[in-house]
Amino acid sequence: MILGLARSWSLTGYAIATLLVLPLFALLLQAAQPDEAVFGHLLSTVLPTYIANSLWLILWVSIGSLLLALPCAWLMARCEFIGRRYLQWALLLPLAMPAYIVAYVYTDLLDYAGPVQRSLRALFGWSSPQDYFFPDIRTLGGAACVLSLVLFPYIYLLARTAFMEQSLSLAHASRIMGCSPWQSFWRLSLPMARPALAVGVALVAMETAADFATVNYFAVPTLTTAVYDTWLGYGNLTAAAKLSAIILLVVFSLIGVERFARRKQQLFQKQSRIQAIDLYRLSSMQTLLALGYCGMLLLLAFVLPSGILLSYAINYFEQSWDPLFWQLSVNSLTLALITSLVCCVIALVLMFIRRVSPRSSDALPSRLASTGYALPGTVLAIGVLVPLTLLDFAINDIADWLGMAGPGLLLTGSTTALVFAFCVRFVAIAIGSVESSYKRISPSLDMVSLTLGQSPRRLLQRVHLPLLTKGLFAGALLVFIESMKELPAALLLRPIGFENLATYVFQFVSDEKLEHGALPAIVIVLVGLVPLIYLNRSLEQDNR
Q1: For residue 27, what is the domain's CATH number?
Q2: Distance (Å, rounded) from C-alpha 339 to C-alpha 350?
């Protein structure tokens, strides 16, 4: 019966996977087309600058995020001090803040007309920029600082988990041998955490390579802004596809370097869940330093931007609380809800085929479907536009051949393109969540059900689905939040006259009027807090 299911459903799995990787192949085919006019001009003029800025930004954000995250991860995992219980989950909150909103807040604070420089001029009697030096935030370095503040929790979360799972016997041995906490960290814990750190840095690097809104607001020319300008400015899809292919090369190179660096690493350790974690108890001065560092980082990355957003939302509440705000909220919620449901259905089908199929080749569709998560939003938009445009033209040609009125831009002129792009990008999240839940289901349940005469379909409905409810909910929740926040793909693929909260806020940010978009921004941040709370509760349950 299982073999019959594998043969009948494997084609379905491959069909779904082919549909989800179609944008990638379409992008590569479009990039292979000749285009000497626009791309040749870019190559001979500004493209080297775009590439250099992108690589430097990735490097500085990776280093900055690593330096910010490591002390926090070590303190939360291996030290005991007042406030640690609350800080260990509060340090995840910056993930809920869109980077371009943080960029605007700090630009408003630190620009020449901002309160910081005004206070300095009033305090020291300066009258012009020539009287003093103040670093310009709208630079490559400023973008790196903002992105580091937002992205460091990726490394913090993985590093904290790695430190907590390290063997207690090794920690005890280091103490017996006279190692101080600093020596134990530097010589023992840090080398053992290298695999987790490598994964975290790779995630930060890919998110940096995919960022569009922050670098666009800071006027830092990178490959992502080049794709946007080439498509909308020059109207040249082929040149934009070629630039997107370069971004893909950078992203997959980062993935390859991360895996190559860990190719010979083997780590064997045993952590007893019965034995309590032996924490270093900090002295009063050390506690003050730890609280000062973690508190200042949390203040700069989340509390200060959130407080300013909240003050804007209160002061401009009457201007923002209007029918348009409700319409945009409905648009965002509907788009995110449809995307999360479709992704969960796809993940459930692909992982069920992988679960019951006796053939190793049937694990390939779920892996192929997960590759879309590595595609930046601007790159994904190009890849989605190419096949859907061809399909739109084909539908209209068929209608014309039949003597019927063509439907027009049926796919690219509606939210269908957005839903498809979001599914390609975020289905990997749902697949990962369902896969994690499947690992907790014993294969003996499948055998017992089939032995009792249950068909594979009823096996899925009556056995798997009830046990997968938690994983499906978690995957749907994460996909929902990511869809609410996704900006580049929404900017490039939205139909005429369609806006959601993310594009609406970005327009106000671009026009230097975030005050009027503060209420929608607060909604995005609050919705982004939901999965962080859920994640924190899951981690607390796992650590009990």
Answers
A1: 1.10.3720.10
A2: 16
Q: How big is the CA angle at 388 (ends 387 and 393), to the nearest 5 degrees?
A: 100
Does residue 162 fall inside a structural domain?
A: yes
Taking a C-beta distance cutoff of 8 angstroms, is the pair 230, 379 a contact?
no
Closest by Cα among 98, 38, 124 to 521: 98
* One domain for residues 379 and 251: no
Total tally of structural domains belonging to the chain: 2
Q: What is the pTM of this model?
A: 0.85
Regarding whether 390 and 254 lie in a shared domain, the answer is no
Domain shared by 370 and 275, yes or no: no
> Which domain, by its residues, includes 409?
1-32+342-498
The structure tokens 């002129």 sit at 413
Among candidate residues 397, 534, 544, the one with its CA nearest the CA of residue 89: 534
Question: First CA to last CA across the chain, in angstroms?
Answer: 41
Question: Is residue 177 classed exposed, middle or buried when 0-12, 13-18 and 19+ CB atoms within 10 A define those classes?
Answer: exposed
pLDDT tens-digit profile, the chain (544 residues):
444 555 666 788 888 989 999 998 988 888 888 876 788 878 888 889 999 999 999 999 999 999 999 999 988 888 888 988 888 888 988 988 888 889 989 998 888 888 888 898 888 888 888 888 888 889 999 999 999 999 999 899 888 888 877 666 666 666 666 666 666 766 677 777 777 788 888 889 888 988 898 999 998 999 998 888 888 777 788 888 888 888 888 888 877 776 666 555 555 454 444 344 567 788 889 899 999 999 999 999 999 999 999 999 998 888 888 888 899 999 999 999 999 999 999 999 898 888 877 677 778 888 888 888 878 888 888 889 888 888 888 888 888 888 887 787 788 888 899 999 999 999 988 888 888 788 777 777 767 676 666 666 777 777 777 888 888 887 888 888 888 888 888 988 888 888 899 999 988 888 888 888 889 989 888 887 877 777 666 655 555 5
Which residue do the tokens 């401009």 mark? 316
> Hunting for tokens 């200060």 — which residue is that?
304
Give CA 249 to chain center in angstroms: 19
